[in-house]
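Q: I'm building a small set of examples for a reading group on sequence design. Run inverse folding on the following structure and report the sequence directly after it, with nothing in between.
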């Protein structure tokens, strides 16, 4: 984290250090509001098994509830080294505020954007329909994409991780629905699962209702 802080300072980002005691999720949520944060950067070791089902990690809670984008990292990374970003979506009514923030992030670090729609046996969609949705997304939001692809895999989570590996992406970007409580236990969150399993940085933003 010290290396990331120094990198941010060197690249003229506003970076303040503060130590707060207490519940991590509550403290971070409060700081996001008070600082009117544009983005949150969090380190994570991930969680699994019973711990993940019952309480989840503090990182997952922030990803689920934060009002601004969250970048989750698991190893040292410098913004200037993030040159290839994968944005995974079903491209059904992607929230405009998510796209706006993502485009701003991509432009700030001068990275290229790769769009992917994961096709699975349980959520099958013919390729022509998927491509039409991706093309409409690019046109509607004036997105400059280095590539677009429909990628087949067993699950959405696996497909996102596999495609990111295939093209050696530096970061994964996703929108999350931000569900909580019983509904979250029933449906889970693809974004949170990717955050938990990914080795590379993951950019997420909650879709506002």
């Amino acid at each position: 984290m010290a290396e990331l802080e120094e990198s941010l300072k060197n690249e003229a980002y506003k970076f303040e250090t503060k130590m707060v005691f207490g519940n991590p999720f509550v403290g971070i949520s409060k700081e996001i509001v008070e600082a009117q944060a544009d983005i949150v950067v969090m380190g994570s070791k991930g969680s699994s098994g019973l711990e993940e089902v019952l309480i989840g990690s503090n990182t997952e809670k922030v990803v689920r509830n934060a009002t601004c984008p969250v970048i989750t990292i698991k190893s040292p990374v410098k913004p200037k080294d993030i040159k290839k970003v994968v944005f995974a979506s079903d491209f059904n009514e992607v929230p405009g505020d998510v796209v706006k923030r993502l485009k701003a992030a991509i432009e700030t670090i001068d990275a290229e954007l790769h769009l992917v729609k994961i096709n699975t046996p349980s959520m099958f969609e013919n390729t022509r329909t998927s491509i039409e949705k991706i093309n409409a997304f690019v046109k509607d939001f004036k997105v400059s994409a280095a590539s677009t692809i429909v990628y087949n895999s067993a699950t959405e989570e696996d497909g996102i991780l596999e495609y990111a590996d295939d093209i050696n992406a530096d970061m994964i970007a996703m929108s999350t629905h931000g569900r909580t409580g019983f509904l979250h236990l029933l449906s889970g969150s693809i974004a949170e699962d990717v955050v938990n399993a990914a080795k590379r940085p993951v950019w997420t933003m909650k879709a506002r209702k």
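The chain has one domain: 2-206.
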